[in-house]
Serine/threonine-protein phosphatase
Amino acid sequence: MDAVKASEPLPSAEALLRAAAPHALVATSRRILAEGVGAQEVTLLLADYGLTVLQPVSHLPHTGTPVSAHDGPAGSAFLTQNPVIEVLQEPAGHLVHLPITVRGDRLGVLSVRLPAGAAGPDTVLQLGRFATALGHEVTTAGRDTDLYLQARRTRRLTLAAEMQWQLLPGRGCARDEYVIGAHLEPAYTIGGDNFDWSTDADHLVLTVTDGMGQGIDASLLTSLTVGALRNARRAGIGLADQASLADQAVYAQYGGKMYASTLLLRFDLTTGAARAVDAGSPQLFRERDGHTERIELEAQMPLGMFEETVYEEQAFQVEPGDRLLVVSSGVHSTRSAGGDLFGEQALRLILGATRSAPPHETARAVVAGLIEHHGSSELMSDAAVVCLDWHGPPS
């Protein structure tokens, strides 16, 4: 492949990907990139549910050898969200690792092997755009094939975890005004914890829910709660009324025997004015100018505990540069083997140590600190962490 050919724009790459069968995106990518930039090898690696490894997508049920999501060239591309070029000796060439991210949701890495001299800046830029287009198609293809969801798992999910992961909007979201990064543990056995968000032209709504119980019972409760909250939100009503309608739905089903603790937040994207309904145990922290504090909200009844509970909204303000952290009770109430709580002091230390890291890594660092404090990755309770960086409206 000559240098002139390698620098030409990829011909209708997005259209070719859209035309591919859902399971054939990797094979189609290999063909497009071989013809467009002389790629000798193309590998799609997807982050597993625990965000510990990047798994190659191949012929299932067999997959290639996973690589670390934290170390090495591919892991560096995933963490930094920047291309990483690896120099190869035998045979000479370059292995270009490109992050795959869809609207702030980090999916994995696309690794492309190029012949020597072919990894120029223009080619790397084209490959980055291609990786983004591929990410969008992988997300869409998930409606029609299990291939990419299967490739993400290092072991079988429990049924409760399968239901919870399907309920999530993703693990991140980004706009000019904000960036969200979130994480759940234990990833393969999660039951009742959930996070959800929705954005429009003027507002962002964010909820974190902790359904009581464990396993399938907790998952069913949380599914009902999140569905009820979404139904109320999509009716265009206020935050307090969303909580009230969800409360009625849960109480009607369980009669107060099961309930869900939920924190509802709504942000005005122009002014930073925030409204909140604290219906249970998730806690909210804010880091501003190097100082971390818990935002104290009026504790109201969990959803479904009593019939026809009336909820009230509270107001607070976020400013450009603020970092917000929401954690479920499985985080702030976890104890070590010696009985010590993983409380506010530990969260403050982690927030301070990760201030320069993106929200995704801060959320993961909180979970890593929690596991270290607990002394085992087998957490006794589900743990949900959502980190939000507030940038404010574009100037």
In short: DSSP finds twelve helices and 17 strands in the chain. The chain has two domains: 13-152, 159-390. Confidence is low (pLDDT under 50) at residues 1-6. The radius of gyration is 22 Å.
